[in-house]
Amino acid sequence: MDHSREPEARWLTWDEAGEAMLDLRRRVFLGEMNWPEKRIHRDRDPEGLHLCAVSGGEIVAAISAYVYEPGAPELAALELAATDGPSVAIGMRVELPEYRGRLVTAQIGTSMLRQICEVLLPSRFFVYVHADSLLHLVDRYARRNFTYHAQVGSGPDTVVVMKVEGEEELEEFYLKHRDLTRKYAAEGGMPVPSLARFLAEHKREDLFAVSGLGAENHYLGQFRLDTEAPRLASQGRLILGEQRQRLTMTPFPPAPASLLDLGSGPGDYLAAVAGEPPFAGYRVRGIEPAPELLARARSAYPDVDIRPGTAYATGEPDSSQEVVTANFVFVHLRSPDLALLEIRRILRPGGLLYVVDVNDATLVGPEIIQRMMETYNRRYAGDRLLLNDLPARAEEFGFELVRRFSTALRDGADGPPVFGEDEIRLGKADAWSLLSFVRTQSGCEEIFDAAREHFFATPDGRISLSFETHVYRLRP
Ligand SMILES: C[S@@+](CC[C@H](N)C(=O)[O-])C[C@H]1O[C@@H](n2cnc3c(N)ncnc32)[C@H](O)[C@@H]1O
Questions:
Q1: pLDDT score at 440
Q2: CA of 265 to the centre of ligand 1 (A)
Q3: Which residue among 218, 237, 329 has the greatest number of ligand 1 atoms within 8 angstroms of its CB, and so is best to mutate?
Q4: Is residue 1 part of a domain?
Q5: Is residue 299 situated within a structural domain?
Q6: Of 34, 66, 355, 420, whose CA is between 20 and 30 Å from 117?
Q7: What is the reported pLDDT for 308?
Q8: Co-location of 386 and 255 in the same domain
C-alpha cells in the first residue's frame, strides 16, 4: 500500500468498513498484544461512530465511539448510574505502528471528541481499559480529564472504567478538545469532515442534541437584559450604516420572497433592515430563543413577526425560504454544523445565507487586550474565531461562498462614528463598549479591568477588530 501521501480523515459506517477495521484491530491487538479474538469486537460496533484515517485506500488509524441511551444495561454492568442524556464510550483506538505518535492519530481522537460534544451533547463520556494489558492508558486518559470510576469484572476480563461527567467537567472537557483541534489544525493537520453531515446522510438525526442545545450560551441562561438590549440596539444602528452598501451589492432573489432571520434578539436590527430596498416586497420574519429578548422584540415591534425558535429547529417547512440571515449569531452557537444543516433544509436551492459576524482572528491591539480576548475565547462555549472556518464548513453542506466583505472597527474618532471604506472609526468609549460583554464571562473580570485601564490610558488608534459579511448560495 502507498502510505507516502498524507492520510485523509473519514467517518465510515460499519457496513462499509467493519471488515477493514477488524483487520486493523487484529493486526495490532491480536498480533502485538495477544488479545483473544472476542475482545476486538464490540457489540455496538454496527451502530458505532467510526472516525478513520485512510491512506492509499487502507485504514491506518481508527477510533470508535458508542452511544448508550440512559438506562442501557451495559452502563449498569460498568456501575455507571443513570443520567438524563446519552453516555458515550470511546474505544478501540488503533493505528498501524508507523502512525503512532503522529499528528493524524492525535487529530482523529481529539476531533471526534470535539464533534461529539457539539452534536450529541452527551451527559457522560467513559472509557474502559483492560487491566491486564492497557493500564498505561489510565494516565493518558487522566491527562484528558477522565477520572477513575470503578474496576469491574474479574480475572482477565477485569476492566478499569474512567469517566467525564458533570456540567462543569464536560464543559471543561469540550473547551480543552476544541483548543487541541485548533492547535492541530494550526500545525498542518488534515481536515476532518463533519460528524453532523455524516449522521444526516445516514439518517441518524435521532442522535442530534437539538433540544439540549437550548441552554448552550449565556443568552439562553443568565444575562442582563437591561444592559444587553441597549448594547445590541446601538450595535444594530452602527451595523446598518455599514451594511446598506453590502446589501445592495448582494444578489438577493427578487420579491416576492421569504426571509428568515435567526436570533433576532431585541428586534431593532431586523426591524430596521426589513425596510431596506433589497427587501421591498419580501415577507420578513425572525426567530429568537431567549424568552426575554423575544418578549422585548414583540412589544417594541408588534408589526414584525418574531417567533420562538433556534437555529437548529426553526419550525419552518423544507425549502420555504429564499434568504436566511444571521447577524452576530453564528459565533454564539455550540454547533454551527447543526445550524447549517437546518438552514440547508429550509432554504430553497439557490437561496442565500447572509451572515454578519465578528472575527477575533483579525484583532490588532495592545498585548493586554489580545490576552483578554484569548482568555475570553478559551472560556466561551461559542466561537469568535469561527468565521475563518465557516466557508469550508459551509461548503461541506452545499453552500458556496459568493461574497465576503470585511470591515474594521477602530478607535480614533472624536465624536460619532466615522464611516470609511471597509472601516468604521469610533470614539474611545464606543470602541470599548463593543468589548463590554467580556466582563460577564466568569474568570475574565480581572483582565477586563486591567485591559480597560490600559486602553483608556493610551493614545487613540490602537485597536482594530473586524466583522465580516459572508454571503453563501445553496447549490441547486
Ligand atoms: C449578539 S445577539 C444578536 C442579536 C441580533 N441578531 C442583532 O444583530 O441585534 C445574539 C442572538 O443570538 C441568539 N441566539 C443564541 N443562541 C441561539 C440559537 N441557538 N439559535 C438562534 N439564536 C440564538 C441570542 O438569544 C441573541 O438574541
A1: 83
A2: 5
A3: 329
A4: no
A5: yes
A6: 355
A7: 95
A8: yes
